[in-house]
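To close the section, here is one more complete example, presented without commentary so you can practise reading it yourself. The ligand is NAP.
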Amino acid sequence: MPTIHLGVYLTRGQETYRAVKYALEAGYRGIDSAQMYGNEKETGQAILDFLASDANTNALRREDIHLTSKLASNSTYDAARKSIKASVERCGLGYIDLFLLHSPYGGRELRLESWRAVEDAIRDGEVRIGGVSNYGVKHLQELLDSEPRIRPAVNQIEVHPFNTRMDLTSFCQEHDIVVEAYAPLARAMRMKHAAVVSLSRKYSCTPAQLLVRWSLQHGYVPLPKSTNKERIKSNADIGGFSIDEEDMATLDELDEYLVTDWDPTDCP
Ligand SMILES: NC(=O)c1ccc[n+]([C@@H]2O[C@H](COP(=O)([O-])OP(=O)(O)OC[C@H]3O[C@@H](n4cnc5c(N)ncnc54)[C@H](OP(=O)(O)O)[C@@H]3O)[C@@H](O)[C@H]2O)c1
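Output:
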């Protein structure tokens, strides 16, 4: 899986299309979409058009780009299976690389039925990798205890220095579940925080680059979102520095359980 993916939440139509193209041109190889975002079609189209364009100077092919989508709500097996097929159709790329259950809402039975639909979509070649999102430890444990044919490879959760979720991230890492960090920029709500500003100066980077770097150094896969060409480019341009241990600890200590969107990790 690519190390950084562009998030396309809260983008629509041409805005999504342009952001995905800017990202691919800037070197991103992963895009994070979802049924709920209503932009799977534009995301897929932008990928196809990029691959066929002169901007594709490295002669990349479909298999070099990683597309994620997510099931809007957990449902019965048949409904979930149908819904995954519809996503694959909408994106127009032949298959989806990573398909997630967007949240644990719906209760045990629908969670497990929906997971069975993901497993069968993988078996049938519609999806390459299966995972979950917003799963708390108890939801992950429930899925692992159900002895699935395929274990979830990913849990996509909100993680940044202002919401570190160490309990959950360490459970994932102990169980070989990749943590995808959503809202890795804390939705731009803490860009002016004194510690972030001071460390950005120290490393001669932007606050956003510092936050993306923090995520990578914890072993997470960050999904920074932007629709701005320059910010898309600079958010992923983080090869030139690394945060030292002491400063990582300073950032870890900024935890205030800041929830920027929703937090279903504790739902029944
Ligand atoms: N699974 C889930 O439940 C879930 C929930 C939320 C998000 N996600 C995924 O994670 C992705 C990222 O999360 P997010 O969109 O909530 O938040 P985010 O990536 O933390 O922050 C996005 C915000 O930061 C701004 N921004 C981007 N780069 C910036 C920079 N260099 N300097 C200043 N501001 C900057 C963006 O504005 P501009 O666009 O104007 O640059 C936007 O307002 C989503 O797009 C989605 O793919 C998943």
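Once you have examined the tokens, check your reading against these statements. Residues 7-9, 32, 102, 133-134, 156, 182-188, 191, 206, 208, 223-228, 231, 234-235, 260-261 surround NAP (CB under 6 Å). The chain has one domain: 5-257.
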